[in-house]
Structure formats: C-alpha cells, structure tokens
Amino acid sequence: EVIHVPNTIDDDAMIYEGNNQRDKNDLPVFIIPIRLIESLKGAINFFDAIGCDNVKRAKFIIAGDGEDKSLYADYIKDHHYENNIILAGFCDSVKMKELYNNANALLLPSFSDPSPLTLVEGLKFNLPILCSTHCGNHFEAVEENVNGNTFSPLDPSEIKQTFEKFLSKRGDWTVMGEKSGMIYEDKFQTDKVVRKFITNFNQLKKE
C-alpha cells in the first residue's frame, strides 16, 4: 500500500497578492528560482538552446546563488544579455514573494531536480509553468497545455520549440495561471495534504 505525500510549502509565507503588476511588464518576466550549479540546473543549456533572439524577447530573473555564479556572470557579459538575464542572488522569503508576484511565468530548466518546492510555489502564485521533465513533481504540477508546458532538457530543438510555443500563448497566461492556482489548492495545500494523509493512514490501520 502506498500513501502519496507531496512536498508542501509554508502557505503563510508565500502569499499571492493578485495584483496587476504583471500586466505592466513590457517584456514577459520569467522567474527562475535555482541554485547556480549548471550541471544540475541547466539554465545556460536552456539559453543556448532557445538562442539569442529568443533570449532577447523576455527578461529572466535568476533567484539563487551557487558555485557557478562567475560562470553565469561571464556568460551574460559575453553574450550581452545584461538587459535580459538578471542574477538576483540569494533571496529571502520576502524578496521571493515580491519576485513571484511580479513575474509572468515560472521557468525551471533543470537537468536534475527530484521534487522542487519552487514548482509548488509557482502554482501558489498563479503562474503558468514552463519546466523540464527532469523535475520529478512535474507529473502532479503541470497539465500540458492547461497550466504550462514541459520539455526535455537534453533536446535543444524541443527546448526551443516549447519555449516559442509557450511564449506565443502569452495572451492565455492569466487563465493558465489560474489553473495553476487550482492545482495548488487541489493537490498541494498543506492543510488538505495533511488531512488526506491522516485519513489514508487511518484507513490502512483499519485494513
């Protein structure tokens, strides 16, 4: 017998304000909450795959620190991406709440990410999701073409095609984000997860 217990977040710390700041962004803003370890998180791999023209069609805010910080900084400088890829560094929960509320979409391009809480946070903040199939909880968090899209981080052609498809649906992102919020409420809200676990556990004991 198996009882599913998904990763959950601090509901009280991560508060979606439902403001209209997102609508004021000239370029679509992607929040990328990752550690700066390219071999695991694959952001440079993603940017190389989508190409220069596509990078310059959006703003990507990378929230996190890590051992490859200088690699990322050099990559941005060498490709003249200073206006499009922003290294925000380590961000506490207050700063992350601000970034999530002002972003238009969540991007996770990871090579390896067993069950990232950031994906759940993106749902909580009603963000459409663009993420790698190597994010273990994408099965529960992303409904293809409903609240987001997924791609293999090992296939540059698929990455580019999926990004362009996702970007072309910007007019639908608000509705897609609302779907993300519904998925969060249904599958990841902490109280609901705990109650479901207790119910299932008690049922197993009876059996």
Report what the structure shows.
The chain has helices at residues 38-41, 43-50, 52-55, 69-78, 93-102, 117-124, 138-141, 156-168, 173-188, 190-206, and strands spanning 29-33, 59-63, 85-89, 105-108, 129-132, 148-151. The termini are close together. It is globular. 45% of the residues lie in helices and 13% in strands. It has a six-stranded parallel β-sheet, sandwiched between helices. By secondary structure, it is α/β, with parallel strands linked by helices. It contains ten helices and six strands, in the order βαααβαβαβαβαβααα. Helix 7 (138-141) links the parallel strand 5 (129-132) and strand 6 (148-151).
Runs in which pLDDT lies below 50 for 5 or more consecutive residues are none
Strand content of the residues, in percent? 5-15%
Spatial separation of the terminal alpha carbons: 11 Å
Separate helix tally: 10
As a whole number of angstroms, the C-alpha radius of gyration is 17 Å
- Classify the secondary structure makeup into a structural class: alpha/beta
Reading the helices and strands in chain order gives EHHHEHEHEHEHEHHH
Order of strands across the main sheet:
3-2-1-4-5-6
Write down the overall mean pLDDT.
91
Number of strands: 6
